[in-house]
């Protein structure tokens, strides 16, 4: 049984804990929050985990094998490095780091301490995304792709009212491409690898982060257009066009449905049943790495490519984080 600790007491942490416990591979043993009362309130629904408000104490806790980190983006790298240097394996929410330099440093620390570092990006592990990937050759040579994830943020009204929520604050390494846009970029890299060219544009908010934007990725023989937004909604499926047909995926982040359309226009439903918790499959995947006691090199490389591309996209669009200047 993997002894799990969590850093962060928000809804996504709850969702990961639920996925981990469903897998029957994990036992929740510790909860960290900056405020011990917040840790206590969060932990009340679980079976008596230890509570921490001191990261050093958590790092030294011998009852913990793995730490799941779901703090603000800017804290991912320093917290992960601290845990790994103490011998803890780390599951780090996407994006794993604020920039490419920090992502490389994180994997170097993992290697130095012989621990596993895993970026919690759920899309590639879902059955419908795996089905999408397996069907690419069936639609012939790729000629175009459009990957979209646009969702009006529940925090945007607060921003418009003059507040400065984490979601739109560069101090926390946030913004559209680092949050919702990650799913689009990560999916493209998972499906097609590193692009030959990158062109990005974005609409920046007064806070300095992007509220929405688009990215054009150039590959050999086709382009991939990414559309992301936290200030508007979209109801379009992501589309992958080949010479012999197309594949349509509703909700690229979780792979809600998958449809194949042949060149003659025939529609075939390829959707397969999935766990209602989309994080279930990434929790299972990490458990496999834990049992093998090694980092999956393919997924490590994807994480590094995505981190490099995110940094380049922000350079092109003028989004700067404090950590970029260190």
From TrEMBL:
Residues 2-120 form the Gfo/Idh/MocA-like oxidoreductase N-terminal domain. Residues 139-247 form the GFO/IDH/MocA-like oxidoreductase domain. It comes from the Bacteria. One of its GO terms (molecular function) is nucleotide binding. Signal peptide: none annotated. InterPro entries: Gfo/Idh/MocA-like_OxRdtase_N, GFO_IDH_MocA-like_dom, NAD(P)-bd_dom_sf. This is Gfo/Idh/MocA family oxidoreductase.
